[in-house]
Amino acid sequence: MKIVRTVEEVRQAVRTWKAEGKTIGLVPTMGYLHEGHKSLIDRAVAENDHVVVSIFVNPIQFGPAEDLETYPRDLEKDSELCQTAGASLIFHPDPSQMYSPTFSSFINMSTLTGGLCGKTRPSHFQGVCTVVGKLFNIVEPNKAYFGQKDAQQLAVIRHMVEDLNFNLEIVGCPIVREADGLAKSSRNSYLSKDERKAALVLSQSLAIAQKMINEGERDTGKLTLAMTKHIENEPLAKIDYIEFVDWKTLEPVGLIDRPVLNAIAVYIGKTRLIDNHIYE
Ligand code: AMP
């Protein structure tokens, strides 16, 4: 497995593989890899001849008051995980490799990005779409792998690929969780011992809604209220949003009467965590 830092080096590897008729899977990440990322790489390795993992803390998807500087990084551990999982190449560019001083072309989506995480993070999806679009053009993969953990991102990328005719398949992968239910996230490393315990309110509140729905409740107002009550019982937690939205349009729904995404974002101390459940 090679680690490369320039677009040209990626293109060269891709040219060789394509000339040999090989297929390529891409797993875009920001690094500090865990079992969630590994599940994407495993799936990509199973479905493609070669897998490229990009590790890039993309500056343009962070807001001015967000954690760009402190975002955890560990290239050595990440490369071990990628190597063991069977990836062929890590693309680990410097920001200057992706964004020249004159960079001025962005991908903006006029639907899907205004609600949920887009409300608190207004320029986030512009940054995500732009970097993912660039990665698609650099790697030219047959398939690209994204986690359902970032459900809005998955919906946005699927929509972008359709709108802009990117010639690849998007594969969505299930959420990987810790044994106690907390969704795995690189940002979990920010949590103190008490916060780690408090963070369980996210998966617990989703489970409360699931139980109510299994028992026949369909009113999203009542479901939201039950989830809110549970989270507000935890002093270290502060709700950013609890939403039930149509899993296609991401528009809020009053009833669970179609495929629905139940998405939440909660601050645990200073750390903003997200989680969700999809009712297909
Ligand atoms: P990130 O490095 O956080 O940008 O994540 C890179 C990719 O890994 C995204 O497609 C995420 O949705 C996915 N991912 C992150 N955490 C998980 C998880 N716990 N389970 C499944 N996929 C995940």
What does this structure look like?
With 280 residues, the protein is an alpha/beta fold. The protein folds into 2 domains: 2-173, HUPs (Rossmann fold), CATH 3.40.50; 191-272, Pantoate--beta-alanine Ligase, Chain: A,domain 2 (2-Layer Sandwich), CATH 3.30.1300.10. The protein has 10 helices and 9 strands. It has helices spanning 7-19, 35-47, 75-85, 95-98, 117-120, 124-139, 151-163, 193-198, 200-214, 220-232, and strands at 2-4, 24-29, 50-55, 89-91, 143-147, 169-173, 237-246, 260-268, 271-279. Strands 1-4-3-2-5-6 form a 6-stranded parallel β-sheet, with helices on both faces. A 3-stranded antiparallel β-sheet has the order 7-8-9. β5, α7 and β6 form a beta-alpha-beta unit. The radius of gyration is 19 Å and the shape is globular. 36% of the residues are buried. Bound molecules: adenosine monophosphate (AMP).
> What's the main sheet like?
6 strands, parallel
Number of domains: 2
The computed structural class is alpha/beta
How big a fraction of the residues is strand?
15-25%
Topology as a string of helices (H) and strands (E): EHEHEHEHHHEHEHHHEEE
CATH architecture tag of the largest domain: 3-Layer(aba) Sandwich
Backbone shape: globular
Number of alpha- plus pi-helical segments: 10
CATH topology of the largest domain: Rossmann fold
Subunit structure: Homodimer.
GO biological process, one term: pantothenate biosynthetic process
Main location: cytoplasm
Subcellular location: Cytoplasm
What keyword list fits this structure?
2 domains, globular, Pantoate--beta-alanine Ligase, Chain: A,domain 2, three-stranded antiparallel beta sheet, binds adenosine monophosphate, 9 strands, 280 residues, alpha/beta, Rossmann fold, six-stranded parallel beta sheet
